[in-house]
Each structure stands twice: as C-alpha cells, then as structure tokens.
Write a structure and sequence with these properties.
The structure is a single chain. The strands form three sheets. Strands 8, 9, 10, 11, 12, 13, 14 and 15 form an eight-stranded mixed β-sheet that branches. A five-stranded mixed β-sheet has the order 4-3-7-6-5. It is globular. By secondary structure, the chain is of the alpha+beta class. Helix 3 (140-150) runs parallel beside helix 10. It has two domains: 44-138, Glutamine synthetase, N-terminal domain (Ubiquitin-like (UB roll), Roll), CATH 3.10.20.70; 149-383, Glutamine synthetase/guanido kinase, catalytic domain (Creatine Kinase, Chain A, domain 2), CATH 3.30.590. 27% of the residues lie in helices and 23% in strands. It is built from ten helices and 15 strands.
Length: 388
Amino acid sequence: MKPPSWPGGVVTLELGRRPEILIAERERAMAGSTTVSYTENLRKYLDLPQNGSIQAEYIWIDGNNGVRCKTRTLTKKPDNVEELPEWNFDGSSTGQAPGEDSDIYLRPVAVYPDPFRRGDNILVLCECWNSDGVPNKFNYRHDCAKLMEAHKDQVPWFGLEQEYTLFDELDQPFGWPRGGFPGPQGPYYCGVGTGKVYCRDIVEAHYRACLYAGIKISGINAEVLPSQWEYQVGPCEGIEMGDQLWMSRFLLHRVAEEFGVKISFHPKPIKGDWNGSGLHTNVSTAAMRAPGGMKYIEDAIEKLAKRHKEHIAVYGDDNTMRLTGKHETGNIEQFSYGVADRGSSIRIPRSVAKEGYGYFEDRRPASNACPYQITGIMIETICGSLEQ
C-alpha cells in the first residue's frame, strides 16, 4: 500500500494504527491552519480610497512553466502599455537565472483590468529579459510574437480548450472519497448535480473574473474525470492567444487560492482508466475560413504530419502519459487525422467537412503546454519560418 501524501511530506504509518484513523487525525489537525484566504475580512480594506495611486500586479511566466506576480504602486493610471515602467526580480528564485547574475527584467506587454482589486487597478503581463538585453531562455513569447507579425497577413485565429483538475489540501481530487475512487467515468462530463460535479463555485468565479478582465473566455464545462473542468479562450488573433491563455491561468490560480483549492494542469492527473487533460488547439487562417478553405486545411495537415515529432517536443511535459491511443487521444508515436475523430492527432469538425471551410483542431497538446510554443510552432509549420 502506498502511503498517503501530505503537503509536508509522506506520512509514516504508525505500528498498530489504521491508516484511515491517522488520516482523520491529520485532517482535524490541519483544520485550524487552512490556507483559505479570509476574503470577507479583506473586503472592507479594499473599499478604502487609494488617493490617486494605482496598484499594478506584474505577472510573468517562470522557469517551471508557472506564473509569478508582484505588485507595485503607480502614481497615475497609464493610458497604454508603453507608459508602464520596466521592473525586475530575482531570477535565481524562479529557476530563470543563476545566483551570481540573478536580475531578470520585466517588460510589460499587455494590460488587463484587475478583478480582485477593481477600480483603476491593473494586471500587467510581462516578458522576461536578461540583463545583457536578450530574451530570457524561458521567454517563449518573444519568438512567437515575431512569427505572428511576419504572417499577420494570413490572419491566424486560435481557440484553446484548457482542461484542468482541482485538488484539495491533501493532494486528492476535490470531492473524491478518502482512500478510494468515485464511480467510473460516464455521468461527470457536462454533469449537473451533487456527486457528479465539484467546485462549480470556483469555476463560476473564474469565469466572471475572466470576463471582468477582458479575457475572451468563450465557455466552460465539466469534464470526463470527476473534479476536472475545461474552459475555452478565443477566437484570438496572433500573439493575443498566448497572452490571454496565460492570463486566464493566472486568474484561475488566484481565484482557487481564495477557496483553498489547488489547480493541476498535469496531463494525466490520475493514473489508470481515467481521461487525461489536454489543451486542444483550434486553428484557422483567413484562407481556411473562406469558401473552398478545405484545400488549405488539408495542405496544413500535410505539413503538420511531416513535423509531428517537433510539435510533440513542445506540446507539454509528461504527454506520453496521456497520448496513449486511449481515452480520446491519438498515439504519441503516430500522426493521424480524421473527420469528427477524437482519437486522432488532428480532428476536422464534421460541420467543417460538410461546409468545405472553417478550422481544424490539434488534439495533441497537453494541458500544461505553453500556448506561445503551441501557436508559434503551428504558424511556423503551416505558414513558414522567419527565414523563408
């Protein structure tokens, strides 16, 4: 029997004591030190006047494919992103720089209204740059933006379907029975009712936070694995796709923080006969969206087939655990496509096949993949590299 996992490490089972009793005792001990934020106590302070100052939350992607943030005070509301000052942080603490040369610079690239502080306060998405004036090695946005600019005449649109799973403080899917499993997959997808869906309050809060911030969130649904959900962002044009998806992830973590719930983007959060989590990527160009566009969709798929391994290399960590050819996935070693086939690498929606134009869906990216890497290599493959 594998010992249960705890936030502080692995529990040592005491001789002669049943594991379920120890778990119950740990739960009672943790009840007095919950990580849930006391938002109601905070609210009265958020109503205090700011005397003309603005709080700007600077947000960036770290060296472990996660989000970080810190706040600074501005003396006036900026009219555009160019007016925002550059800032810096300790890159040795985020996996982005060595300790002897740790300063990493934050260059603002996009601004959004802050749904937590509200008023004139803002969220600021930033790129990371080294002190020598070159992009940090984890700054995937920089090259992606250049590709999008080079091919902007093709008007690339994207829509990303972000799947994720909610875990409790004991690192178990929220709502699952202690030490056991819920019933098999079936009633949970787009489910309604107790025992079928979990954490709808968090999902709804995140939805509203995205709308307030101007994120182009286009929908939500409960997924196949209980306590797994999906939201969709898009359609977005060019570099805006990566910006909006990363900001939506920040908002999801930030909302869940107030409920004491953890967000997992792991592509196989639960081993066994359970669906994994993906970041299905819907793609089109202006030519694909026009009558007769199927020809351009087929041309794109032919190009994608030739670079399958290169795409898989940047489509997320631990994706081998998910792309097994089962649970509505294709096999990671083989490229495939089909109409309405959710077991293929590329799916052409049936409506697109019928009308003869529209878009296609790349089902290979894992839920933890970087949207800048996904959209960047997609445009490089179907539209051409910067050197061409």
